[in-house]
Amino acid sequence: DTEVTQTPKHLVMGMTNKKSLKCEQHMGHRAMYWYKQKAKKPPELMFVYSYEKLSINESVPSRFSPECPNSSLLNLHLHALQPEDSALYLCASSHIGTGGIEAFFGQGTRLTVV
Amino acid sequence: DAKTTQPPSMDCAEGRAANLPCNHSTISGNEYVYWYRQIHSQGPQYIIHGLKNNETNEMASLIITEDRKSSTLILPHATLRDTAVYYCIVRVSGNTGKLIFGQGTTLQVKP
Fold it and tell me: Could A101 and B51 be called an inter-chain contact, meaning their C-beta atoms sit closer than 8 Å?
């Protein structure tokens, strides 16, 4: 199983809503990532978890709150978002090490904030 | 972090080889070169990676210059399904596996 599963595929939320994005993998990867991608732009790294602990936060606003409840799951909790936060949110996972390691990406959640 | 420079777009005829260049002149000795591609509205897909030697797999070949300052991804027989944005990435040293995407090259394969 080399799949990273993201749910939901599409989400529309109001600026006062609270919602969560979910990411799941069963490859035994201990690094998991959230990326944000705006239209016609490359993915931008948001957060990195290593061994279920937050290791990198790329200065992401606090209205985005990540959570890694176990080694297979990664959540992104959303609260009080702005319309400019509308984007494709991508989750990825990989093994941890210093050698050449490939990351596997999910198909993303297309988020629209209204 | 080492940065990469790629042409913004390229065309290739179907059935011909697609050669995608990438410059990474500030790469350090223990950083790997990775290639990913992203087909419209899908998640990025890993293609290949290398450190010093040329690499080949079922999808592509990766040619890295001896000084490691540039590389070329080769798709030997491009098909219409290879139309995508191709990202050349230098992996940050350390054990986080952090991947920083540059602007990429949009490859258009034409019939």
Answer: no
